From TrEMBL:
UniProt binding sites for L-glutamate: 3-7, 39, 185, 203
An MF annotation (GO) of this entry: ligase activity
NCBIfam families (alphabetical): PRK05710.1-2, PRK05710.1-3, PRK05710.1-4, queuosine_YadB
Domain named Glutamyl/glutaminyl-tRNA synthetase class Ib catalytic: residues: 3-250
Family per record: Belongs to the class-I aminoacyl-tRNA synthetase family. GluQ subfamily.
Pfam families, sorted: tRNA-synt_1c
Protein name: Glutamyl-Q tRNA(Asp) synthetase
Gene coding for it: gluQRS
Positions occupied by motif 'HIGH' region: 6-16
Domain of life the protein comes from: Bacteria
SUPFAM superfamilies per the UniProt record, alphabetical: Nucleotidylyl transferase
Amino acid sequence: MGRFAPSPTGPLHDGSLVAALASWLDARAHGGRWLIRIEDVDGPRCPPGTDTVVLSQLAQVRLLPDEPPIWQSRRGAAYQAALDHLVGSGWAYPCACSRKDIAEAIAARGDERARHGELVYPGTCRHGLAGRPARAWRLRTTATLSDERDRRIDWTDRRLGPQSQDLTLDVGDFVLRRADGLWAYQLAVVVDDAWQQVTDVVRGEDLADNTPRQVHLLERLGLPCPRYLHTPLVLGDNGEKLSKQNGAQALDLSDPLAALQRAGASLGLPRLSADAIGDWLGQAVKAWPFRS
């Protein structure tokens, strides 16, 4: 079972289509089903109607789900149940820290480590709030509850090979529910992947760094871990990842087959001779290089 999980913050662009096509091809190459999940937990960033635009774009290139799409904005009860489980088992705890508090705590111990522009949480509230009001909920990233040894995650990507990360040192205890009450991506994605019985997560290489956190969460929730495949990124003219944040233009679907062919080329597919979308997709499934 595979899935494509776009955030409807804007129309799909060339990079989005590459991700959608990769997950669709992988599911079909393995004789599996393919799902669409609208990841709209961050409601303020999702303009009304954008989800409809995204679904329409996918339909134009014949990437149709085998089941009706789901919307994460309607799944709050499931995320709350998962958080309750983690709190009850001692793995999740309330956090009173603001970004300023975190920066000051890190500076006080002479540590200036930052990760992708984000400060690594120093575990300030892990042992209590010291009378301060809770703002968010975090997940412990220690090896066990009884000690604070680092939690190292080793996993294998189907394209990138063996991967490893010291989750405690490189990430720190991460947020499950934000101070504004919104659910964090990490919790929502693992809960929904398990609920939808996703066996293979296929997504862009920029999301590989999320995998250790998701593996840790899955284990803490007692959920099965899918296989992971992270595909090459589509880069803009400036050499950076093509994204809505850096001005990626909406997908040009004046010629849907040509759009698919461009996406296939980004995934390393050979040039396929087909005059219709259905024929091209059928050939692309047979040419999909990640069949193991």
